Amino acid sequence: MSTELQRRAEALMAVGRLLYAMGMVPATSGNFAARPADDNLAITVSGRHKGRLTQEDIMLADAVHRLKQQPKKSGNASTPPLDA
Q1: What is the pLDDT of residues 58-83, one digit of tens each?
Q2: Measuring CA to CA, how many Å separate 18 from each of 13, 35, 39, 81?
């Protein structure tokens, strides 16, 4: 994982913990994303608990949603468009 992606993953994990603790997000609903300095997206794998995200729960996709780095854990039904 690149340094830039690591920073974005850490930020997404921190935001997930904060928003979950505040009761502002359901545990496994939706996705969080951040844009590193390049044209890629750091995005949470679907179905992961937003208050307990790990770096393995963050995948890298390009601007047209093609995966650039496979997540170690598979997602649910909302992830196939990102795999295309």
Answers
A1: 988 876 666 666 666 655 444 444 44
A2: 9, 19, 27, 28
